[in-house]
């Protein structure tokens, strides 16, 4: 790959540039899912239920039209297990047809679909039988994966089995603690800071890894040439001087164990938003005076390049990287443009060093339901909550223009480190 000028990096042929969503966050009325049940209970951290979300269940053709018109060549979306298998063993042919239409719709528009099988939500029946902690959860997931082949056959190449398994294991630990303490303390589960106060649920970690491997086998055996991976939340743990061992021990169950499980996969999804500082006594708060986003995370765009490097260090160089999420919750689109520009520069730097990166999928295509609230707006495209009218933001036009040009900004390394 060559840099045409010092300030740009030419993307390799076939590089995917697009945006991402997940079913529950944009479709609306995902009534058979565990999250729908959770968010409609009175005793949780949820401040508003997902309701109609962005109504993408009906408006996906418009969403894809916009992405294509903006200049993108890829769309990552998830298919919803709770719709496909509303009762264990009973498959909705209509739901399968719906998602097949989406796959075909993407391809017709020149958008390579990247399809996630599981993005945080499960059918209520799966939750009721013990969720991931049930002894046969991996087999049950593999069976759903077999069913999902009917959608993938419509022309999918890239499949993500499970989104952010590391966050699933952490969320399970938070829910378990909330359940032990009683409903009054269920608020705990919502606080982002809560993640630092629990250890990921080890049984669930192991079940998720088994499920990923079982699903991967099903997908490979289908003989469709599917390229299979999973997408891990990269927290970019940075050790303060002297805290290197503490940081490594902290990171292992929260991230690296899931990256190690991706050795031998066809690709690995990197999802990065910010960094987390670790001191000798453990995680530290966001540095005083640092700019934060609507999710309370430090504004730290270089997280992306650092996450890619860390991922490759753990998984090994033989597994190509796909950036499956990167973005910022902000009401100020100028900050989104600045963030994305710097994040892309950090990505260009790792690519210029020879790391094999196959795509960049921004989170998110649309303003959507951020797990309990619509307030943190991550979208390149705004959505009116009453009319569902879509309005692309300037950031969408800028990123789309880069996609069309096949180039991304590239600062010389010295400039990056001098920030
Ligand atoms: C998830 C998304 C979420 C985003 C921003 C990731 O953790 O995959 O569902 O909306 O980050 O929080």
**Largest sheet strand order:** 2-3-4-5-6-8-11-12
Instruction: Count helical runs.
Output: 14
Main pleated sheet: 8 strands, parallel, barrel
Q: What is the end-to-end distance?
A: 25 Å
Structural class: alpha/beta
Bound small molecules, deduplicated? beta-D-glucopyranose
Primary descriptors:
419 residues; alpha/beta; TIM Barrel; eight-stranded parallel barrel; three-stranded mixed beta sheet; globular; binds beta-D-glucopyranose
Describe this entry's structure for a reader.
With 419 residues, the chain is of the alpha/beta class. The protein is built from 14 helices and 15 strands. Helices cover 41% and strands 17% of the residues. The chain has one domain: Alpha-Beta Barrel (TIM Barrel), CATH 3.20.20. The strands form 4 sheets. Strands 2-3-4-5-6-8-11-12 form an 8-stranded parallel barrel, surrounded by 8 helices. The protein starts with 7 loop residues before the first strand and ends with a helix. The structure holds beta-D-glucopyranose. The site of beta-D-glucopyranose (BGC) has 11 residues, from loops.
